[in-house]
Amino acid sequence: MTTIRTVLEIKGTEIIAVDGNMPLSQAIAMMASKGIGALVIAGEKYPDGIITERDVLRLWGQREKTTGTPVKEVMTKKLIVTKIDDTLIDALTVMIRKNIRHLLVMDGSKVAGLLSIKDLVKEQIKNNEAKIQLLEDVLASEASAEL
C-alpha cells in the first residue's frame, strides 16, 4: 500500500505559508502566480488555517471582501489532516467524505506537507497502471507456458 510519505517523496514537501494579516487580494494573486489552490496560514507552532480557491469562490459575490480583508478572516480554521504514514486510500477517503480538495500532512506534531486531491489521484492512477501491467504480464506468461 502506498503511504502519504511516498506521495510526498514524489511530489515534494514545499508548503507556502503566509501571515494571517496578508490581504486576501494578495493571497489570491500569489495562488494564481504560483498555480496553486491553497495557502497555509502560519501560526506560532501549528497552522492557524488554510485559504483555498473554494474559500475565495465563496466570497466572489462580495467582491469588496477580496480587497483588503485579511486572510485570517476568511480562512478555513478547522483543519482536516492526514498522518504521513496513512495510506493513499485513507487520505482519499477523508477528502471525499469531507468534500475537500486539500489535505495537510502531519508527521507527529510537525507539518510535513500539503496534498491536493489531484496529487493523490495521479499517484493512484500510477499504482493502478502498474497493477494492470503486472496482471497482463502474468496472463501473457501463463498463456505462453500453456503452448
Q: What would you say this structure looks like, in words?
A:
It is a single chain. By secondary structure, the chain is an alpha/beta fold. It has one domain (4-146): Roll (CBS-domain). The protein has helices at 4-11, 24-34, 53-58, 65-68, 88-98, 117-146, and strands at 17-18, 38-41, 49-52, 81-83, 102-107, 110-116. Strands 1-2-3 form a 3-stranded mixed beta sheet. Strands 4-5-6 form a 3-stranded mixed beta sheet. A hairpin with a 2-residue loop joins strand 5 (102-107) and strand 6. The longest helix has 30 residues, at 117-146.
Quick structural summary:
By secondary structure, this protein is of the alpha/beta class. The protein is 48% helix and 18% strand.
Which features characterize this protein?
147 residues, alpha/beta, CBS-domain, three-stranded mixed sheet, 6 strands, 18% strand, elongated
Can you give the helix content as a percent range? 40-55%
Strand content: 15-25%
What would you call the shape?
elongated
Q: Please, what is the CATH homologous superfamily? A: CBS-domain
N- and C-termini, Cα separation:
35 Å
Question: Helix count, per DSSP?
Answer: 6
- CATH class category: Alpha Beta
Overall tally of domains: 1
Structural class: alpha/beta
Kindly report the spatial arrangement of strands forming the biggest sheet: 1-2-3
Reported CATH architecture: Roll
Order of helices and strands: HEHEEHHEHEEH
Rg over CA atoms: 19 Å
Report the biggest beta sheet as strand number plus sense, adding barrel if it closes: 3 strands, mixed
Number of strands: 6
* Overall average pLDDT: 90
Weakly predicted, low-confidence segments: none
CATH third-tier fold name: CBS-domain
